[in-house]
Design goal:
This protein has 183 residues and is an alpha+beta fold. It has six helices and nine strands; from the N terminus they run E-E-E-H-H-H-E-E-E-H-E-H-E-E-H. The relative contact order is 0.14.
Length: 183
């Protein structure tokens, strides 16, 4: 495993990944209320969606799924990410959802970069990808800053709360890109 990007991901004494003063930890069933509170923050329903407690519980019990919390020094969840496809034979991991308690402060790119480092810390992972609403410029900028490239558009692939359809932009980073850029 390579050294983490300066200022991003490191491993602390307890074996958890740290991001600056925050800690990246595996979420458990007891963390579902915090996850639900974050994903129900203002504006998130139209950008990233939300699940019920039962849906989160079922996902947490699924193979290849990881919920990661970004916790502050006091142990409070400041963000979460939902990854799927971990351990798949093709090495492809999907960032299905990411949300921060206080978006718009530049923490999304740091969190995304930490997730990229975490995913590629496992040499079996080859590709890390996501889709984002085409009109979500803030998320697209954060993804590009974390090393993701735009691959294409899934036309009218998401139905919005108002019933209209929206395009999704597929973005990814490959292990080779990550090694080249951050080794």
């Amino acid at each position: 495993m390579r050294a983490a990007r300066p200022g991003f991901l490191s491993v602390n004494k307890s074996g958890n990944f740290s991001v600056n003063a925050n800690e990246l930890v595996e979420a458990g069933v007891d963390d579902i209320p915090a996850v639900m509170e974050i994903e129900r923050g203002e504006g998130y329903a139209r950008l990233v969606g939300k699940n019920s407690a039962d849906e989160h519980r079922a996902l947490m019990g699924s193979d290849g799924v990881s919920y990661l919390l970004l916790k502050d020094e006091d142990g409070a969840a400041q963000g979460f990410a939902l990854l799927t496809g971990l351990g798949s034979p093709d090495g492809i991991v999907l960032l299905q959802r990411i949300a921060l308690r206080m978006p718009g402060q530049g923490n999304g790119q740091v969190f995304l970069s930490a997730l990229v480092d975490r995913v590629f810390a496992d040499p079996a992972h080859f590709r890390f990808w996501l889709d984002v609403l085409e009109h979500n410029d803030r998320a697209r900028r954060a993804c590009r800053a974390a090393g993701f490239v735009e691959e294409g558009i899934l036309r009218e692939s998401r139905v919005l709360q108002n019933g209209q359809r929206a395009n999704l932009v597929v973005m990814s980073i490959l292990r080779g890109d990550w090694l080249t850029a951050f080794m």
